[in-house]
Amino acid sequence: MQRIHVFLLLFSVVLFLEAIGGSYMVSAVQSIERQFQIPSKLSGFMVSAGDFGYIPTVMFIAYFGSKGNRAKWIGGGTILTAFSYILVASPNFIFPVKQPKLNLSTIESRITPSRALLQPNTSIADYINYAPIYDRLPTIMKQQLMKHFGKVYDVHRVERDLTDSITNTSVNAVLHDNLYSIDGDLISKIVNKVNAILKGNRGDEQLKELIAIYVHNRLNNSHDDVMNLKRGAIAPFSFCSKLINELRQIVKNSKCDRNMSNFGPLIVMFTAMVLLGIGRTMPWSLGVPMIDDNVKRKNLPAYFAGISFIRILGPISGFMIGSFCNKLYYTLKPPPGLTANDPTWIGAWWLGFLFVGVLLIGPSCTLFFFPAKSKRSKVVPQNGVSSEQVNDGLAVCKPEKELSFFDKHNDEERNLTAEEKFKAFRESYANVIKSKVYCGAAAGRVLDSLAFRGYMVFLPKYLENHYGIPQYKAHQFMAMFGVFGFALGTASGGYITRRFKLNGRRAALFVFIVSTINLCLFAGKIFLGCRSVVNGVGLNGIATNFNYTTTCNADCECESAPLFPVCNSKGYAYFSPCHAGCREVIVKNRDSYDLEFSSCDCSPNEILKKELCNDDCKLMVVIFFITVMVGAFAAGNGLVPGILILLRSVPPAHRSISLGLQGFLVSLLATLPSPLLWGAIFDSACLVWNQTCSGRSGSCVIYDPAVLRIRAHVTYVAIRCIAVLTDLYVVYHASNINILEEDENEDEVAPKECIALEPPRTL
């Protein structure tokens, strides 16, 4: 295998892995927001941090890197990139979520029966106000029960008469696995008996006997009772139980007391992203001109299409890896009852960064230490004629095909002072800016990136909140339809450019046409609205000004309840089982953890569960991803001719400089502000926020679907309209751009004299 092919293989691998990391960051943003409780504006700032490293270094690295061994520069940059990816993952280990030590004395005192409950003449009101029973009985049932009973009751008489019943019932309660309730079997019997009595059936004495047994069991099982309450307090859902919700608040306060701030993780990730920005300056700005130096012009579309295709396969793989990692919980042990389909799920975002960082080390080091035989290509006699066969000792020689590490268009022999180097640096960039075609093409790519970058960062969040698509599925769909369509378009664009010999204005016109098609398809997304389960919860809250506490759940203390939508038989979505006033949790299947909720004050005599929730988004999702795939295919067709126009719009010696300047402008004016812009757009459409310990807004829970859809897509379309105008400007000025035709002596080095020297003698 020729050395140029070895380099291309290594270059493709590092470019592929770097592209994986870039798209994987998109899949990790939402999980990072949820783990460290940060708003979208702050997460957008974190994503943009890479540009703080990229912007001040790319122009210098593009200039000075083009003067040196480009393979070594590329290898050094990707080594730094590998380290940065590993550093991004480190906050998960440096700042782990530790289980707090809780003071449960208050909770224990509330579930321990008081002396009043064990005294003669205990009233039914005392029993009803006993915390575990009070939590379990629906409000209406408690009120009706108080009206029904007006007499006193001697609990000691029941204990003496029903000792056997107590023992048997206690054993049954222990044998039954009550995950989220205290003595669930027995309390269910009490509730059923109350229902029977309120319907007119006799059974007052049996009810009182059951209550007495329940009180007795609390004396003997206080430790197990507390464990059940703790299990409910850390569950991913909350139901109507004052005891459990008070304990949930205790857990939250304990975390706040330990000063669990998101400042430390953000500083580490911000630093890693800055280093990542420095590392990513080198591969593209130095690698593309290096390929241009070693490949004939007529073959460039095929090579660039291949490199671009590999670079685009990276995001496909990145989204697929993101989908896999988001199926795993960030601690690798999800709380019982929480699944990847739930809106509060936090994926194992750190795993993908470790994977990419470790894989990138090997090929990066190989590139860094890639052997260079010489700075100049070797020469051999033409037609196999050796110098010994030439009478005058001279033979016409041609260059041997050799990998050119150093830019053949740069004069490396001149020894310049520092002042002269700075002057040459300044003049080089001044010459690049004089090209109207370059300025128009660069401006178009800046605007494209401004629209595209931030939109892509928050697209998984949009798909989850607007269409109800889980994170892991959103990343799969983005890979299958968006990135794959773009990859096919790139291959198609390279073929069309070479097949039809698109040169100059024809190539620029082709870029303009496909950009316009992409813009029109994207504009159609403004009208693709629907009502999913999550945004249905948000719309239901409009009537109450997003105060989900109502008369039917006022006794439940749902203020700290996490979002966990459940629906009744009519499909009405509640924010959580707690907000539906549900007091009983039924685990239908311990393996799949199918949950049902009953005894709901807000939806009496019904079983609530997630499976009853419905939406009308299926058709809109299909249409959305059809427009995504077709639009991405159209945009991909413009990539290869766009790169060639940019490279050919400046003198050959300034290619790396032109790419570096374009990267500088794109980062400064597009990729840096774009995530901040889209983060602000998303935050502006937020309806319900999580709260941090300081009382500030954390991550957004529910968005206004219509506001988010319109603001995001109208902003995108407006920016892209301006970008299309710059493409039209390039069409007007691109008549003299030579893309595919070879310049004279472009591929050949002028024949040189080859001096025949006597070979050295060996001893």
UniProtKB/TrEMBL annotation:
<feature type="domain" description="Kazal-like">
    <location>
        <begin position="546"/>
        <end position="604"/>
    </location>
</feature>
<feature type="transmembrane region" description="Helical">
    <location>
        <begin position="344"/>
        <end position="370"/>
    </location>
</feature>
<keyword id="KW-0812">Transmembrane</keyword>
<feature type="transmembrane region" description="Helical">
    <location>
        <begin position="619"/>
        <end position="647"/>
    </location>
</feature>
<dbReference type="InterPro" id="IPR036058">
    <property type="entry name" value="Kazal_dom_sf"/>
</dbReference>
<dbReference type="Pfam" id="PF03137">
    <property type="entry name" value="OATP"/>
</dbReference>
<dbReference type="GO" id="GO:0043252">
    <property type="term" value="P:sodium-independent organic anion transport"/>
</dbReference>
<dbReference type="GO" id="GO:0015347">
    <property type="term" value="F:sodium-independent organic anion transmembrane transporter activity"/>
</dbReference>
<keyword id="KW-0813">Transport</keyword>
<feature type="transmembrane region" description="Helical">
    <location>
        <begin position="260"/>
        <end position="279"/>
    </location>
</feature>
<feature type="transmembrane region" description="Helical">
    <location>
        <begin position="477"/>
        <end position="496"/>
    </location>
</feature>
<dbReference type="GO" id="GO:0016323">
    <property type="term" value="C:basolateral plasma membrane"/>
</dbReference>
<feature type="transmembrane region" description="Helical">
    <location>
        <begin position="73"/>
        <end position="95"/>
    </location>
</feature>
<keyword id="KW-0732">Signal</keyword>
<keyword id="KW-1015">Disulfide bond</keyword>
<feature type="transmembrane region" description="Helical">
    <location>
        <begin position="44"/>
        <end position="66"/>
    </location>
</feature>
<comment type="similarity">
    <text>Belongs to the organo anion transporter (TC 2.A.60) family.</text>
</comment>
<dbReference type="InterPro" id="IPR036259">
    <property type="entry name" value="MFS_trans_sf"/>
</dbReference>
<dbReference type="InterPro" id="IPR002350">
    <property type="entry name" value="Kazal_dom"/>
</dbReference>
<keyword id="KW-1003">Cell membrane</keyword>
<dbReference type="InterPro" id="IPR004156">
    <property type="entry name" value="OATP"/>
</dbReference>
<feature type="transmembrane region" description="Helical">
    <location>
        <begin position="300"/>
        <end position="324"/>
    </location>
</feature>
<feature type="transmembrane region" description="Helical">
    <location>
        <begin position="659"/>
        <end position="681"/>
    </location>
</feature>
<feature type="signal peptide">
    <location>
        <begin position="1"/>
        <end position="19"/>
    </location>
</feature>
<keyword id="KW-0472">Membrane</keyword>
<keyword id="KW-1133">Transmembrane helix</keyword>
<dbReference type="GO" id="GO:0006811">
    <property type="term" value="P:monoatomic ion transport"/>
</dbReference>
<protein>
    <recommendedName>
        <fullName>Solute carrier organic anion transporter family member</fullName>
    </recommendedName>
</protein>
<feature type="transmembrane region" description="Helical">
    <location>
        <begin position="508"/>
        <end position="528"/>
    </location>
</feature>
<keyword id="KW-0406">Ion transport</keyword>
